[in-house]
Design goal:
Blueprint: E1 7-12, H1 23-42, E2 45-52, H2 57-65, H3 70-87, E3 94-97, H4 101-116, E4 120-130, E5 135-137, E6 155-164, H5 170-179, E7 184-185, H6 187-197, E8 204-205, E9 207-208, E10 216-217, E11 220-225, H7 228-232, H8 234-237, H9 243-249, E12 254-258, H10 262-276, E13 284-287, E14 290-292, H11 308-315, H12 317-327, E15 334-336, H13 338-367, E16 371-374, H14 384-395, H15 399-420, H16 428-449, H17 454-464, E17 479-482, H18 515-523
Parallel strand pairs: 1-2, 1-12, 2-3, 7-13, 12-13, 14-15
Antiparallel strand pairs: 4-5, 4-6, 6-8, 9-11, 10-11, 16-17
């Protein structure tokens, strides 16, 4: 049975714009967008938040190096991030920036509430501090005396700071995690946090007086609030006003974050909320890292950085989205491989999906005059188990399993057509019955595909003559469809050795955000040509064609 939900508030970590967006930024937003779209389709009142963490020492330094003020610097970076997310069709309802006045107002409010409970005091901070991480490490957390993330020497700091009594909330948070097993997902991250909470939890330094790009403390303007009280508050500052929005959407249903910031979201953030009197979020979902095909972190010095814009330009936006959701297991690190992406493009998108659409469309046009009536559901291809499995995996934050459930249905529909062979049938009523079942199956497929590949879903719907609806309206009774002709959907990609470059796939009309992205696409290594599966013009095996999938100009939110 598919579970219903009245509202769904989902957020991502806010990005730190001291440099340009990378593959990890794109992956996190696509994953969160998949869940936001899936809940919208199911009928939930969904609010989806992304944004930028614009304060801090790194930003101030980067602004100085670029000869800009910090505000000018983050304004420029905000445009770069937003253009990428628009290109990726991230269907966010709001884009919060921590330099905005609405955010500042709420941060001062929550700080005042925390201070009023007696949980803030002034002291002397000593620690080994990594500027890149913007956090301190204990001696036991350092690896051979270096930052465990960046491998750099930390800075030994001793300075005046205000502290938050984090240790006071160790037991309440540990109890909450144990009593609410879905609070931290996946389970290995939950076990990691429980193990850390069973040890001593130190109080948290929450201010700095060594830089001024931040929100000054109202009771001591020489100090600015440091990182986490400022950054984490965005999840409420974005819905704080108007107040009925806060009452409607808070607590958040899911924070989507990287596994490297799980402590801050499952310990520090809940402690802040308990101190200030706000309800805790219902879930924190931690995804893994995007690594290169050899399992290494992407880094300029290794020469293995792949820009998301470059891949989107070369293969298409929807192909990149599909690859993220299909190939990367939920919660685990994923090895980004262009060879694997191209293999999935050919075998799953072009052959499985593209051929299925082509078969049905060509049979309707060649045998039924382009018009077909159906009972409104796939009579011989019961989609109920697929819908239940798909949404069960959505609820457990296993997007890769949801896509697998969908693809099993795609293959089942192909097998059904292969078995019935409607292209050989002489009886037009039999052709109509079999092809109508295939078209209704494709209608289900397009709806379940929309959270992953929105442009593709829209194009399938337009070509086959139906509209995308919410789940409760999916089966609306008998229907008649006018099937249109189309251009290639997932065209064969030619090898760059001696052949013309492959054509772009769905949603690939990418604006050039940075010149180097185009240069990077041209420098990409040659790829081997792939075997092509073909389909005849009558819908049977033969010459392969497909249908065009194009992104609607300005389209953002899913149906």
């Amino acid at each position: 049975m598919i579970r219903t939900q009245d509202k769904f508030y989902i957020t991502t970590a806010i990005d730190y714009p001291n440099s340009d967006p990378h593959m990890g930024h794109a992956y996190e937003k696509v994953v969160a967008d998949f869940y936001a779209r899936a809940y919208r389709f199911r009928g939930a009142d969904t609010w989806f938040l992304i944004g930028l963490d614009e304060h801090g020492q790194k930003i101030q330094r980067a602004a100085i190096e670029s000869k800009r003020s910090p505000q000018e610097f983050v304004d420029e970076k905000a445009e770069v991030f937003r253009r990428l997310y628009d290109l990726l069709e991230i269907s966010c309802d709001d884009f919060i920036r921590t330099s905005q006045e609405r955010h500042r107002a709420f941060v001062l409010d929550i700080y005042s509430r925390i201070r009023a409970t007696g949980d803030v005091y002034k002291g002397l901070y000593r620690g080994d501090y990594c500027v890149a991480c913007e956090r301190a490490y204990t001696k036991s957390e350092l690896l051979d005396g270096k930052c465990p993330v960046h491998g750099t020497d930390p800075i030994a700091e001793e300075l005046e700071s205000y502290f938050f009594r984090l240790g006071k909330y160790r037991e309440p948070i540990l109890r909450h995690i144990r009593e609410n097993p879905e609070f931290i997902c996946p389970v290995e991250r939950r076990n990691e946090i429980i193990a850390r909470l069973e040890e001593e939890v130190l109080d948290l330094s929450i201010s700095r007086n060594t830089f001024d790009w931040g929100i000054p403390l109202p009771d001591d303007p020489q100090h600015v609030l440091y990182v986490w009280i400022d950054a984490l508050s965005n999840y409420i500052s974005a819905v704080w006003e108007p107040r009925d929005r806060y009452r409607r959407y808070w607590p958040a249903d899911c924070h989507v974050i990287g596994k490297d910031i799980i402590w801050f979201h499952t310990v520090i953030w809940p402690a802040m909320l308990l101190s200030a009197g706000h309800p805790l979020p219902k879930q924190v979902y931690a995804h893994g890292f995007v690594l290169d095909e050899k399992g290494r972190k992407m880094a300029k010095q290794l020469g293995n950085v792949i820009a998301p814009l470059s891949v989107a330009e070369d293969y298409g936006v929807d192909v990149l989205r599909f690859y993220f959701l299909r190939a990367f297991s939920s919660g685990a690190d994923g090895n980004f491989s262009l060879a694997e992406l191209e293999e999935r493009y050919e075998s799953e998108l072009a052959n499985d999906l593209g051929n299925l659409i082509l078969r049905v469309a060509k049979l309707v046009r060649s045998r039924l005059g382009g018009r077909i009536s159906t009972p409104g559901y796939p009579r011989d291809l019961d989609a109920g188990p697929t819908l239940e499995a798909y949404f069960s995996h959505v609820d457990t934050r296993e997007h890769h399993r949801a896509i697998e459930a969908l693809w099993s249905y795609v293959r089942r529909t192909n097998a059904y057509l292969n078995e019935k062979e409607p292209w050989k049938a002489k009886d037009e009523s039999l052709v109509s019955e079999v092809v109508g079942c295939g078209l209704e199956a494709l209608r289900v497929i397009a709806h379940l595909l929309e959270p992953a590949m929105p442009a593709t879903a829209r194009s399938i719907a337009e070509t086959l003559g139906f509209s995308l609806r919410k789940l409760p309206e999916l089966y609306a009774g008998p229907a008649t469809y006018e099937v249109a002709a189309g251009k290639p959907l997932f065209p064969a990609r030619e090898s760059s050795r001696g052949g013309r470059p492959g054509r772009k796939a769905p949603g690939s009309r990418a604006p050039v955000l940075q010149a180097r992205a185009a240069r990077g696409a041209r420098r990409r290594r040659a790829r081997p040509s792939r075997r092509r599966v073909a389909v005849r013009h009558d819908g049977g095996p033969g010459k392969r064609e497909a249908l065009d999938v194009r992104r609607a100009p300005g389209a953002r939110r899913g149906g």
